[in-house]
Design goal:
This protein is mainly α and 108 residues long. The chain has six helices and no strands. This is Tetratricopeptide repeat protein.
Length: 108
Amino acid sequence: MNPSRLEQLLAFLKEDPHDPFNLYALAMEYVKTDAWQALNFYEQLLQQHPGYAPTYYHAAKLYEQLNKPEKARETYEKGMQISLQQNNRHAHRELQSAYNQFLDEWEE
């Protein structure tokens, strides 16, 4: 993690705490070194900006990594629902593919 990048992202969040991309960028930066802090930002996004589709794939993957399969399943399913509502076929395909892989790995 680049400390100056992190400082810059935190400054962006402070300037505009209502922009979901600021939380998303912080989560993506933290996922490299601090999974629990990244999860904190993903969960803020899921709660405060449930329509921000990019969150679902990455949050679900992180739940998998943290051995939280029920949260991963729930997040994939919600993300697929949101992406269909938004007619975001690309996001839906990515989520569906990751979800199918998740089922293959966790349902054995």
